[in-house]
Amino acid sequence: MALIVQKFGGSSVGSVERIQAVAQRVNQTVKAGNSLVVVVSAMGKTTDGLVKLANEISRNPNRREMDMLLSTGEQVTIALLSMALQELGQSAISMTGAQVGIVTEAEHTRARILHIETERVEHHLHDGKVVVVAGFQGISSNGKLEITTLGRGGSDTSAVALAAALKANFCEIYTDVPGILTTDPRLVPEAQLMGEITCNEMLELASLGAKVLHPRAVEIARNYGMPLVVKSSWTDDPGTWVTTPKPQGRSLINLELARPVDEVELDTDQAKVALLRVPDKPGVAARLFGEIARQKVDVDLIIQSIHEGNSNDIAFTVTTPILKRAEAVAAAIAPSLRSPSHPNSDEAEVMVEQNIAKVSIAGAGMIGRPGVAAKMFATLAEAGVNIQMISTSEVKVSCVIDALDGDRAITALRKAFEVEAGEVGKAGGAGEAGGAGEVGEDRVVYLSPPYLPTPPVRGVALDLNQARLAIRQVPDRPGMAARLFGILAKHNISVDMIIQSQRCRIIDGVPRRDIAFTVPRMDGETAQQLLCQVAVDLGWGDVVLDSAIAKVSIVGAGMVGQPGVAAKMFEALAKHQINIQMIATSEIKISCVVTQEQGVQALQVIHSAFELAGTEKFVVPA
Ligand code: ADP
Ligand code: ASP
Ligand code: MG
């Protein structure tokens, strides 16, 4: 007999008939001999409706009252589903988050789970009842018994956390699509179903806009080795398994606040090639990386920053042995990137930097916790280490620094994040198994045959809810990134795609660079205001906000060591005259910022360039 946690999303419980259908499904699973905890969302678009009501009363509703309001949605569903089960002769009991004892921190509207009291649920399970739990909500730990919510889409997180706390055999997420698809079928009906995906890939996809799973749910599955599957509520198809590491006996106390960083890595075998002042028009990145791929040069990080005027800087890192080849390719292509009208200008200058190293912190506890990256930057600043490039992903933040600073950086980071010397990771590698023969394979529980080659690109995601901020003329010295991201972290503003321009300009005797980054759109104006307040004191130039952007990303553990993946993405965009404003990569993802208008088209052309489209079209039921 298995203990299973099943979660049904809003559309799966959107009407009385659908609640009855869920009850039938639950009843069958129990009859097959399993114990069941069922987590449900609010019916249909109830939560959206409640948010709208609040906004009609207040432009800036009190967050405690918001939780009080939004948590009511789920309470309706638990009662109705219990009744429907009882009608089928199945004993069942509904419980709110507070009744279960889903204890969270007191951060209203975005609380993290601290621990879950399992006794009451276990007692009811023991009595043969199905326990129906309200998703997305908890109760604060500060003795005040405040109702909290976990953040939009958080019922997935409730379900996986309950599964981990109850030591369930697995967790099933039932939704309105057949599983995890190569992209959102509402935007690309040819999206294909995946059989499985690694949790690191899913963490990236979920955070980059694929809302089929709440990223924190994947984080918990990864940390606790909880097998997780996403399936259709309407069919019996097998769905998509998220492959997770083997359980490591992690403590269930501070469930979502565990140590955020488990590894500190140093890679000294790195060199950087930059092309400065290339034209800001479609096709430039495609030409450069197309040639690089044809020469079989494997690039690691790629960044492209926006700039004042109409030119960009593109930089990439390679391992030292192939630097000469990479430099030759860049030098050969540079003349063709200069505008014919100014053949002698300083356009497309090639710059090479050999004495660099990459330090990284890695761990699944960084999601939605901007303070972690900020702490890394602050630690490097305190150690007097200047940061040249930054690459962020959901599970890793890497900084390119001067090679001479490598040891100092690693010692400081190890100390700051309490990572033992023995835990310092090996340089390079995907950081997660993507298929047979890759790093850390033994940590992955395969639920379907493991020996399928990992595709370079597993999925494509679009995020239309981001804004871009650029700070002009930031003095190029240690501590600037720390100040900047420290301020944002203090206000809980998450930052993605952080890019410093390669070009350095001397103004008032101080070398300066621009820094650009993306933040959630709803935080854009606040971030701009916060940064404007300190800009003069810190000697920065203008703080510019652009909210009309879209971020399109490809994710796949198989892109590691595969030249040509980036080129293909950039070529697809160039072919459709879509200009790339920013590029940022991590080991398993490449993200491009384009105009908001072109976002959906960008997603579609990239999806088709990687041949992810299937022959069948999905129609997501209303
Ligand atoms: P639920 O209410 O069941 O939690 P959500 O609306 O939160 O459902 O998530 C399911 C939706 O996620 C789908 O209807 C689909 O439009 C969207 N989606 C975005 N990206 C993907 C993807 N890669 N695979 C599947 N669905 C996706
Ligand atoms: N009902 C909540 C929301 O709509 C939580 C969830 O569905 O996961 O965000
Ligand atoms: Mg959801």
Automatic annotation (TrEMBL):
It catalyses: L-aspartate + ATP = 4-phospho-L-aspartate + ADP. It is an enzyme of class 2 (transferase). The keyword NAD does not apply. GO terms for molecular function: aspartate kinase activity. Pathway: Amino-acid biosynthesis; L-methionine biosynthesis via de novo pathway; L-homoserine from L-aspartate: step 1/3; Amino-acid biosynthesis; L-threonine biosynthesis; L-threonine from L-aspartate: step 1/5; Amino-acid biosynthesis; L-lysine biosynthesis via DAP pathway; (S)-tetrahydrodipicolinate from L-aspartate: step 1/4. Its EC number is 2.7.2.4. Keywords: Amino-acid biosynthesis, ATP-binding, Diaminopimelate biosynthesis, Kinase, Lysine biosynthesis, Nucleotide-binding, Transferase. InterPro entries: AceGlu_kinase-like_sf, ACT-like_dom_sf, ACT_Aspartokinase, ACT_dom, AKii-LysC-BS, Asp/Glu/Uridylate_kinase, Asp_kin_monofn, Asp_kinase. Residues 273-353, 361-432, 469-552, 554-622 form the ACT domain. The keyword Ligase does not apply. SUPFAM superfamilies: ACT-like, Carbamate kinase-like. Belongs to the aspartokinase family. PANTHER family: ASPARTATE KINASE, ASPARTOKINASE. This is aspartate kinase. It comes from Anabaena subtropica FACHB-260.
